[in-house]
Design a protein that fits this description.
single chain; Immunoglobulin-like; TIM Barrel; 5 domains; 13-stranded mixed β-sheet; 7 helices; 56 strands; 41% strand
């Protein structure tokens, strides 16, 4: 049926205003449906739906003075009953306003107007989606006959664009030598982490001794807010950090450390995001845009695209492969072909599937959203079926925690070389420990599982994601599919919470991921180049923390850090909401700052000399506040949230941290004098006095004072 015929029979919808929307902006929008010849019968329904990955503020119809108030009116005689409902339409259009039509019918020409962000009763309006979309759609469908059969009508579409610059970001490669050229990237981001596509600011660049960088740079229209400087050189060994300032907008940034080494080992570090998906499945923007963002905006070295298999038609699979191959550029950017086997947890759970070359088969967990069932016999209904199907083939599976979590009761060592410890869904150290508890020999990665079109630089927004997306660092011989493939299968990789923390962990000189036979405890050496001061490095043997560097943490004598963390459950609804506050008695708060908040939707809301309030969610990670308190041992901190309600005195934490546990998966609040850190560049070695027979996985966890973390892949040491 043509669009003209749809409009005539079933109606159409428009939006006012129809201009591009700034990501995360607050405003009022009117969506008006014009009834077609059929009208809508008494007992019929309208749905105005948007994609379920969107974090457009959920409309509410009960409090005219509260944010996101919405109203529905009609020019016709029918009565209308609106409601905002989740998961009442076909994935991925599961966020929708449903409007029941009753008492009378709507006739041709009648209009129904949904006003989202109605300010007439004092509401501040509705906050738009916080991430950019080439064409955002409010999809309107009508059950015009009251039969629960919906016809989609021509619906309003408009772009969501980046806002004003709120942050500068500087990125460098992690390693170079005096003989080679390297690069430095600078970008401007808005409040929600979108590259500012119209940024035209002038930045001052402090090169820290690097040659090849200009003293100033004015961003050009074709930069789209991101510029990569090539031909940069470090002339002498050392660690270089580039500083960038935009004096007009009051923005400043410092890059991650660029380590210049005189003699490079066989392998060098490359950064990437192996996990995310685009709008061909449940994500945002097309797969072509996905790989382009990773390369040009996130400035990562490699990326993988992992769409849900039960939405990948043959046409979509062909396009995913085509884009990965077209955008793969050895030496500059590597794109992997792959998909996500998305079985339910009882039959295996989420596993990413990767291929090393240009092609590979797709073996789905089901055809639930694929109309063409002609190849349903190729489905693998259980993860063990997938193991059997891929047996002997060059493929890689990565179990991870997404909406579903992978079930580690099953494992194939010939396919599963690594597991994912962290993504936008949260921090899942319990997952890697589960793998070690099962005696699996696996390395550790991190990714974003980005659904918002921002692989490699994935902010969580204000929806179901809890943290900034992770990155994987791979020590490879070269930046190519083959080089990265060999390194990942060798477990020569580690994951971070998204910061480019350079980490090298060795046992008796062998790199992370190695298998090592010993007759005496190995010497563990650790080198870290952090993006902030390192708070601590914990060395684990299997599940047990056996050493912490430094052995004594240096702490502030007045600043108090209060950090809350954890997740409810392993499954999808794991998020813990910590909205609340604290008050101080017998003391004064001189200064307040946030700790490890993940997005603009979180953070400190109000603070006075004796109180602080905040909004916060955790999904395994930690958030918190740091208070500079002028007090005495009897100063009391009353902490109040729906999760924990407790009182702690400064005398209580004088001798060490006070931890209040609250169930779930490591849900807790820790009160302590703030660790000061030991600097951004550290090196140490450690060896146990004795070691029992058997296989012992040695691995390290780095924690910075800003809450950022890195997890090294284990070295599997056998006595």
């Amino acid at each position: 049926m043509t669009e003209s015929e749809l409009r005539s029979l079933y109606g159409w919808a428009e939006i006012d205003p129809s201009e591009p929307v700034f990501a995360g902006s607050t405003g009022t929008w009117k969506i008006t449906y014009h009834a077609g010849k059929y009208g809508i019968d008494d007992g019929g329904v309208m749905k105005i739906a948007w994609r379920d990955v969107s974090d457009w503020q959920a409309p509410q119809f009960t409090d005219p003075s509260a944010p996101a108030y919405a109203t529905v009116t009609t020019s016709g005689q029918a009565s209308l009953r609106p409601a905002f409902e989740k998961q009442r339409y076909v994935r991925p259009w599961r966020l929708c306003v449903t409007i029941d039509v009753f008492d009378e019918s709507l006739v041709e020409g009648d209009t129904v107007t949904l006003t989202i962000g109605d300010t007439s009763g004092g509401s501040t309006g509705s906050r738009a989606q916080t991430f950019c979309k080439e064409l955002f759609e409010f999809r309107v469908a009508v059950d015009w006959c009251g039969t629960w059969v919906y016809e989609e009508v021509p619906s309003p579409k408009f772009p969501i664009v980046s806002g004003l610059p709120a942050k500068l970001v500087a990125i460098t490669a992690s390693e170079t030598t005096p003989e080679e050229l390297t690069w430095v990237g600078i970008k401007a981001e808005d409040l929600w982490g979108n590259p500012c596509s119209t940024y035209d600011g002038k930045v001052l660049i402090e090169s820290a001794g690097l040659s090849g960088l200009p003293e100033t740079y004015k961003f050009q229209p074709d930069d789209h807010g991101v510029h990569r400087f090539e031909g940069v050189r470090a002339t002498e060994p050392g660690v270089y950090r580039v500083s960038v300032t935009d004096t007009i907008n009051g923005l400043i940034a410092e890059s991650n450390g660029l380590s210049c080494v005189s003699d490079r080992s066989e392998h060098r570090p490359f950064w990437g995001d192996l996990h995310g998906q685009s709008e061909e499945t449940v994500g945002t923007n097309p797969v072509s845009s996905y790989f382009k963002f990773a390369r040009e905006a996130a400035l990562v070295d490699f990326a993988g695209h992992q769409g849900n298999d039960f939405q990948i038609t043959e046409e979509v699979w062909a396009e995913i492969k085509r884009q990965a191959n077209v955008q793969n550029d050895p030496g500059r950017f590597v794109a992997f072909v792959g998909y996500e086997w998305s079985g339910n947890t009882p039959v295996g759970g989420d596993h990413n599937v990767y291929y090393p070359g240009d092609d590979g088969p797709i073996h789905r967990s089901s055809h639930v959203l694929i109309p063409d069932k002609s190849d349903v016999d190729t489905d693998c209904l259980h993860v063990t079926d997938l193991y059997q199907t891929l047996k002997g083939k060059d493929a890689l599976l990565v179990p991870h925690v997404g909406g579903r979590y992978a079930n580690l009761n099953w494992h194939d060592p010939d396919l599963e070389y690594v597991v994912e410890v962290y993504s936008e869904w949260g921090e899942f150290e319990w997952f890697l420990k589960w793998a070690l508890e099962q005696s699996y020999r696996v390395g550790f990665t991190a990714g974003s599982d980005d659904h918002k079109g921002r692989p490699g630089a994935a902010y969580p927004g204000s929806g179901s994601f809890g943290v900034y997306g992770g990155l994987t660092c791979v020590y490879a011989k070269e930046l190519s599919r083959g080089g990265l493939w060999e390194a990942i299968k060798s477990r020569r990789c580690y994951g971070t919470t998204g910061q480019r923390i350079l980490l090298d962990v060795r046992a008796n000189g062998l790199p992370m991921g190695s298998d090592l036979n010993v007759t005496a405890p190995p010497t563990i050496t650790v080198n870290v180049t952090g993006t902030a001061s390192v708070e601590r490095v914990d060395i684990f043997r299997g599940l047990e923390c056996i050493y912490t560097y430094p052995e004594t943490l240096s702490r502030s004598d007045r600043q108090i850090r209060i950090a809350w963390s954890g997740q409810r459950i392993r499954a999808r609804n794991r998020l813990v909401r910590w909205d609340g506050g604290l008050s101080v008695r017998n003391g004064t708060i001189l200064e307040t700052s946030g700790y490890a908040f993940d997005s603009a939707s979180e953070g400190i809301q109000e603070h006075t000399s004796d109180s602080v309030t905040w909004k916060s969610v955790t999904t395994g990670d930690a958030d918190g506040v740091i208070l500079d308190i002028d007090g005495s041992p009897n100063t009391e901190i009353d902490f109040k949230t729906d999760i924990v309600d407790t009182t702690v005195t400064l005398a209580d934490i004088e001798s060490g941290p006070v931890k209040v546990e609250a169930g779930g998966i490591e849900i807790a609040v820790v009160f302590e004098y703030a660790p000061l850190g030991v600097g951004r560049e550290i090196a140490f070695e450690f060896s146990e006095s004795e070691l029992a027979t058997g296989c012992h996985p040695y691995w390290a966890r780095v924690t910075q004072v800003d809450g950022a973390k890195a997890w090294s892949s284990p070295i599997y040491t056998t006595v």
